[in-house]
Design a protein that fits this description.
By secondary structure, this protein is an alpha+beta fold. It has one domain: Pnp Oxidase, Chain A. Helices cover 31% and strands 34% of the residues. It is built from five helices and eight strands; from the N terminus they run E-H-E-E-E-E-E-E-H-H-E-H-H. Strands 1, 2, 3, 4, 5, 6, 7 and 8 form an eight-stranded antiparallel sheet that branches. The chain starts with 7 loop residues before the first strand and ends with a helix.
């Protein structure tokens, strides 16, 4: 990933936080005929430095993965268009502010039912708790057992993470403050909060 030094983020805690907050990633692999991608919800194990997800068995992508060959998973964080009209000096060009994390690692496919049950239970609990739901997998016990037979798990041991957090760090403090003000006015708080944090860390 092309990453100028002013936009590079290599703090693992910040990179893991972006993944946890934007956990619907895209898994890419390269094959002899063409590259392939699958969109998957992931869980992160920071202690083991792994990503965990599962494929539908009907998705033939998993059959093409090799445990000896690295794959790439991309997580997209907050992003937005930035207008030159928001700068003190307007003789600039438009740009796009965004955060993204690229994760590389070798996959391990998981087929045994106990491991799959544990993975899906943890993933479901994570997202149900995020919306303060009282629903439990036990309410769908019969269909859950059937669906377990229709998935394949994947665990990716992380070998490298690249982070790019491009938020006008190459612009003046005044320009950054004006961009923040306009983003706040538009209700684009996710991007403006990151920019505010960046400015505060410079003081």
């Amino acid at each position: 990933m092309y990453t100028p030094s002013s936009f590079k983020e290599d703090n693992p805690e910040i990179l893991f936080e972006l993944i946890e907050n934007n956990s619907f990633g895209v898994l890419f692999s390269q094959h002899t005929e063409r590259p392939e991608a699958t969109h998957l919800p992931f869980m992160v194990n920071k202690r083991k430095r792994t990503l965990i997800a599962h494929f539908a068995k009907a998705n033939k992508h998993w059959k093409k993965l090799s445990e000896e060959k690295e794959i790439l998973v991309i997580f997209q964080g907050p992003h937005t268009y930035v207008s030159p009209s928001w700068y003190v000096h307007r003789d600039e060009v438009p740009t796009w502010n965004y955060a993204t994390v690229h994760v590389y690692g070798k996959p391990r496919l998981i087929h045994d039912s106990e491991s799959l049950r544990k993975m899906v239970t943890e993933l479901t609990h994570l997202h149900e708790s995020n919306i303060e739901s009282d629903w439990d997998l036990r309410e769908a016990s019969e269909s859950f057992e059937i669906d377990l037979k229709a998935i394949v798990g994947i665990e990716i041991e992380i070998s490298e993470m690249e982070g790019k957090f491009k938020f006008n760090q190459n612009k003046s403090k005044e320009d950054q403050e004006d961009v923040i003000k306009n983003l706040d006015n538009l209700g684009l708080k996710e991007v403006s909060e990151i920019m505010k944090k960046n400015l505060a860390e410079k003081k």
